[in-house]
């Protein structure tokens, strides 16, 4: 896939925003077409085969590979995809980057795994150290599905709709103690090419895959550029591949954007919108919105 600038010009509509604020997630049906699904699945399969040869899979044969684009540059077209990326900047604004991403492959499990309570909110220590109730959103995530999870029991993403405004849910004293599922929990069903956009605070888990289908997905988490990133992209940003990425993609991958006379740290804080590619793009397309703080001109 060509790494052309495909940043879309259609912001999140009022109805989708209301649904997102109510439920904490959206399912984007057909975000990727059949050709795109084939392209990204082939790229994911290549990385999986490399990890298998290197002996880096889990005992069950699964892969959870961090820094998605650094690990698989072919996936760069997903990070500003026109069918999903507008949701990101509509919610977080223009001063964003991808702070965390991963490539996931989970083959069918043939022997039942020991019970483990895996319900969580994304963000790690954020959920211990921030004091407000509810805690701030801080980040959003997009999951692209490349396998058929249109039925339950295939390692589906499981969520509690509306739980993004709850700091806590009932849980066991230890993760290995069996515990009832949270009230209202649902498995999200999705076809290949569908995407799920969700608030990091949404209580969610990955279910075990006891089906005959290998679960495949690619995940990108976006936050503001003043937050610390987990992805390791330094080598990627110095590579020939990065030279082919568009300016918005380089911003999202953490490129240093400060030019002569600009302080790098201040640039990440958003003090230089005129040299921040996403701000330039949104301004040129009249997509800044004085009524919404993250998109104020």
UniProtKB/TrEMBL annotation:
Q: Write one Pfam family the protein is assigned to.
A: PhyH
Has keyword Oxidoreductase? yes
Query: Which GO MF terms does the UniProt record name?
Result: 2-oxoglutarate-dependent dioxygenase activity; iron ion binding
Q: Origin, by domain of life? A: Bacteria
Sorted keywords for this record are: Dioxygenase, Oxidoreductase
Q: What is this protein called?
A: Phytanoyl-CoA dioxygenase family protein
Matching entries from PANTHER family are given as:
ECTOINE DIOXYGENASE (PTHR20883:SF48), PHYTANOYL-COA DIOXYGENASE DOMAIN CONTAINING 1 (PTHR20883)
């Amino acid at each position: 896939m060509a790494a052309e600038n495909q940043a879309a010009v259609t912001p999140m509509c009022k109805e989708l925003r209301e649904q997102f604020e109510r439920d904490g997630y959206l399912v984007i049906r057909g975000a990727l077409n059949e050709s795109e699904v084939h392209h990204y699945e082939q790229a994911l399969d290549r990385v999986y085969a490399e990890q298998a040869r290197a002996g880096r899979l889990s005992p069950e044969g699964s892969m959870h590979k961090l820094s998605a684009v650094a690990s698989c540059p072919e996936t760069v077209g997903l990070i500003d995809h026109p069918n999903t990326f507008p949701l990101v900047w509509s919610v977080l604004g223009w001063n964003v980057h991808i702070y965390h991403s991963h490539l996931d492959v989970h083959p069918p499990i043939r022997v039942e795994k020991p019970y483990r309570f895996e319900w969580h909110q994304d963000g790690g220590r954020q959920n211990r150290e921030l004091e407000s109730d509810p805690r701030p959103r801080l980040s959003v995530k997009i999951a692209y599905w490349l396998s058929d999870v249109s039925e339950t029991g295939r390692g589906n993403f499981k969520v509690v709709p509306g739980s993004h405004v709850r700091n806590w849910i009932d849980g066991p004293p230890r993760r290995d103690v069996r515990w009832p599922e949270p009230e209202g929990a649902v498995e999200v069903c999705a076809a290949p090419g569908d995407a799920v956009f969700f608030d990091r605070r949404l209580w969610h888990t990955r279910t075990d895959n006891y089906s005959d289908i290998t679960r495949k997905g690619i995940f990108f988490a976006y936050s503001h550029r003043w937050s610390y990133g987990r992805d390791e992209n330094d080598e990627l940003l110095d590579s020939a591949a990065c030279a082919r990425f568009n300016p918005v993609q380089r911003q999202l991958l953490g490129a240093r954007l400060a030019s002569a006379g600009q302080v790098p740290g201040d640039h990440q804080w958003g003090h230089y919108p005129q040299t921040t590619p996403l701000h330039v793009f949104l301004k040129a397309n009249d997509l800044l919105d004085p009524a919404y703080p993250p998109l104020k001109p």
